[in-house]
Structures are given as C-alpha cells and as structure tokens.
Amino acid sequence: MKDIVRDGDPVLRKRAAKVSFPLSDEDQELAKKMMEYLEVSQDPELCEKYKLRAGVGLAAPQVGVSKQMAAVLVPATEEGGKPEFKDVIINPVIVSESVQYGALTEGEGCLSVDKDVPGYVPRHDRITLRYQDTNGEKHQVRLKNYPAIVCQHEIDHLHGMLFYDHINKQKPFEAPADTIMIS
C-alpha cells in the first residue's frame, strides 16, 4: 500500500470526490489494502514487525487518493469478540445525529498527524450513517460512542478536515456541557 501522507500534504485538505460503481479494479484494491493495514496494525506482533502505528480508521485521502472511501475497524470490546464496526464505507453521509456530544478522554490521534495535539474533540455521540460497501450495496447503520466518533473522524478526512480543527484553541480541555466522556 502507498505510504500514509502526513499533515501538510494538500490532499488532506481537499474535499474528496464521490466514488462511482461498480468499483474499478484500482478502487477495489485500495479498499482491500486500507482494511488490511488496519487489521495488521491491530495485531501487536505484526504492528511491531512492520513498524506500524495502530489504527481504527484509514481514509483514502490519507494514502494520497482524494476519493470518498474509508476503512473502519473498531475492535471488539471483549477478547475474541466480533468487531464493534468493520467495513469500508464509500460515499458516506451522516443522515442524523444526536444533540448529545461525546469525546474521548484521551483526545484523538491520527495516522497522518505525527505530533500529539492535546484537547477534547467534541463529536455527536450517536449518528445514523448511510454508505455503500465495496459491492455497491447500500447500508444505513446507527452508531454510538466510540464507533460513531471513529466514523465521524474518517468522514472529516473526506471533507478536508483534521481532528484538531474541532479542538477549542483557547480551552482545549473544555467540552460542551453534558458531553459524554468516553475512555
């Protein structure tokens, strides 16, 4: 797979193009490689062997391809369990969102951002996501807490935004009232 592009590369600030179906061989391969990266990066031995940073999401712009496609792999909360969310989301749209915000207590990170950017990233705690998979099949799923946050982070990449754009610059550790803090 192509190298992950770093913060400062203009592709990360562009609005990605919609993907047409059926997928080209190139787009099929991109989807496959992005998901493989996440799977390998979540295996501690393979992560160490290949010197990878662990990830739960990877958007096409992060590998230099300005298309509305992202792989998401939120691991199971219990050993040996089914992942909380696993799919390649293509042309994703958030069709509804909660008024309630959620934020990770540790803040967010990104495979394209090498430096630590401290602060809370307020996002909608619950979303309804509509997308197509690699076969062009349409899905509509309701997500909450961590999977909702991960998908919003990846969708931001498709709109030319990075997580730290959401951090309050004056008060980075101040979240909107009633924000659910997720550890």
From TrEMBL:
Pfam short name (any one): Pep_deformylase
GO biological process: translation
Binding site for Fe cation: 110, 153, 157
Active-site residues from the entry: 154
GO molecular function: metal ion binding; peptide deformylase activity
CC cofactor: Fe(2+)
Family indicated by similarity: Belongs to the polypeptide deformylase family.
Biological role: Removes the formyl group from the N-terminal Met of newly synthesized proteins. Requires at least a dipeptide for an efficient rate of reaction. N-terminal L-methionine is a prerequisite for activity but the enzyme has broad specificity at other positions.
Protein name (database record): Peptide deformylase
Organism: Limosilactobacillus oris DSM 4864
